[in-house]
UniProtKB/TrEMBL annotation:
<feature type="region of interest" description="Domain I">
    <location>
        <begin position="1"/>
        <end position="64"/>
    </location>
</feature>
<keyword id="KW-0233">DNA recombination</keyword>
<dbReference type="Pfam" id="PF14520">
    <property type="entry name" value="HHH_5"/>
</dbReference>
<dbReference type="GO" id="GO:0009379">
    <property type="term" value="C:Holliday junction helicase complex"/>
</dbReference>
<keyword id="KW-0227">DNA damage</keyword>
<dbReference type="Pfam" id="PF07499">
    <property type="entry name" value="RuvA_C"/>
</dbReference>
<dbReference type="GO" id="GO:0000400">
    <property type="term" value="F:four-way junction DNA binding"/>
</dbReference>
<feature type="region of interest" description="Domain III">
    <location>
        <begin position="167"/>
        <end position="216"/>
    </location>
</feature>
<comment type="similarity">
    <text>Belongs to the RuvA family.</text>
</comment>
<comment type="subunit">
    <text>Homotetramer. Forms an RuvA(8)-RuvB(12)-Holliday junction (HJ) complex. HJ DNA is sandwiched between 2 RuvA tetramers; dsDNA enters through RuvA and exits via RuvB. An RuvB hexamer assembles on each DNA strand where it exits the tetramer. Each RuvB hexamer is contacted by two RuvA subunits (via domain III) on 2 adjacent RuvB subunits; this complex drives branch migration. In the full resolvosome a probable DNA-RuvA(4)-RuvB(12)-RuvC(2) complex forms which resolves the HJ.</text>
</comment>
<protein>
    <recommendedName>
        <fullName>Holliday junction branch migration complex subunit RuvA</fullName>
    </recommendedName>
</protein>
<dbReference type="InterPro" id="IPR011114">
    <property type="entry name" value="RuvA_C"/>
</dbReference>
<feature type="domain" description="Holliday junction DNA helicase RuvA C-terminal">
    <location>
        <begin position="168"/>
        <end position="213"/>
    </location>
</feature>
<dbReference type="InterPro" id="IPR036267">
    <property type="entry name" value="RuvA_C_sf"/>
</dbReference>
<dbReference type="GO" id="GO:0048476">
    <property type="term" value="C:Holliday junction resolvase complex"/>
</dbReference>
<dbReference type="GO" id="GO:0005524">
    <property type="term" value="F:ATP binding"/>
</dbReference>
<keyword id="KW-0234">DNA repair</keyword>
Length: 216
């Protein structure tokens, strides 16, 4: 499996690029949104990739972030969504836009992608709504490496208390909203309001908070 390519961009086309990696040119299909952000020909470039394998075809698809790549995989798991439709949705909305649309049940946003009809858009929202929060929070938590110079006497070791489930869910929701670009103050207020009205788990908090943050 080719999961990432880093090399020099040697060709730009309407729906794909060619990347020279150690003298080998890899054709990578990308969305319009991704293509617009890539550097000029001859410059260094790196993309996360997903390999589509068929009996008579091998195709590489390129993405700017691991989250965008995971959305591509999830979208293709929906019946009726192939690679072309998935790239159209990501090209129209971006990974953040797809996250918002699915979390809010916004079928119109999905349907706005070229070639995606109302039935397919509805299926995408219904089948993936429970998976959106996990991807929205993807990569937001990182373990702090232990300090190798720290010495703790055996009689002073204490077991840290586990965070309360509700507090943990709110922290994950805040992290996901921050990933989407919302200001910390606005995100915190929306999550607090959502929690006050009964939303408890991460997915429910994110959905409720997004509804409060959505433009009127």
């Amino acid at each position: 499996m080719i999961g990432r390519l880093a090399g020099r961009l040697i060709l730009r086309a309407g729906d794909h690029v060619m990347i020279d990696v150690g003298g080998v040119g890899y054709v990578v299909f990308v969305s319009e949104r991704t293509l617009a952000t890539l550097p000029g020909t001859g410059e260094a470039v790196a993309l996360y990739t997903d390999l589509l394998v068929r009996e008579d075809l091998l195709q590489l698809f390129g993405f700017l972030t691991p989250v965008e790549k995971e959305w591509h995989r999830l979208l293709m798991s929906v019946q009726g969504i192939g690679a072309k439709a998935s790239m159209a949705i990501l090209g129209a909305l971006g990974a953040d836009g797809v996250s918002r649309a699915i979390a809010l049940g916004d079928m119109a946003a999905i349907k706005a992608a070229p070639g995606v009809g109302p039935k397919i858009a509805q299926r995408v929202v219904i089948e993936l709504k429970d998976k959106a929060p996990a991807l929205m929070a993807m990569g937001t938590t990182s373990a702090v490496p232990p300090d190798p110079d720290a010495v703790i006497a055996p009689d002073t070791v204490a077991t840290p208390a586990a965070p309360a489930p509700m507090a943990n869910a709110q922290a994950e929701a805040l992290s996901a909203l921050s990933n989407l670009g919302y200001a910390p103050a606005d995100a915190s207020r929306a999550v607090a309001e959502a929690a006050g009205e009964g939303a408890a788990d991460t997915a429910a908090l994110i959905r409720a908070a997004l509804k409060r943050l959505a433009p009127a």
